[in-house]
Design brief:
This protein has one helix and six strands. By secondary structure, the protein is mainly β. The longest helix has 18 residues. The termini are close together.
């Protein structure tokens, strides 16, 4: 069985090197949202956020939605489309949502957007339900 010790890189409050992001949840419990403010230490090219960091936060947003709804999941497959560069110091609204569940697979989607609504990245995933 999986357990949390508060050291998750994205949301863990006990991980001093992590992002320590807070998530909020929609009333229906099917989506999770956070604001990610990427620092320079997360850049790839000068002033541009490394795509892997954005992917990591989108992965967590989808997992947070699933866990909030009562599922224990691990990511089995994830596809990401990076549509626009994100600048360091630019807040990104990241939202993950449960699309549907079929047997032991939870299908989810996520997006990261600038404050003006410009889409930075979109993702879909198959999360494996393990409990």
């Amino acid at each position: 069985m999986l357990s949390s010790d508060g050291r998750c890189f994205v949301c863990g409050k006990e991980n001093p090197g992590g992002l320590q992001l807070d998530f909020s949840f929609a009333e229906d419990g099917l989506s999770a949202e956070t604001v990610f403010l990427p620092e320079e230490k997360y850049q790839g090219w000068s002033g541009i956020v490394h795509g892997g960091m954005i992917m990591t936060v989108l992965d967590e947003a989808m997992a947070q939605a699933a866990v909030h709804k009562g599922y224990t999941v691990v990511t089995g497959e994830m596809t990401v489309k990076l549509k626009n560069p994100a600048k360091t110091g630019e807040p990104l609204r990241c939202r993950g949502a449960i699309e549907h569940v079929k047997k032991k697979i939870l299908y989810a989607s996520a997006s990261a957007s600038r404050e003006d609504g410009t889409v930075i990245a979109e993702a879909t995933a198959k999360l494996v339900i393990i409990a």
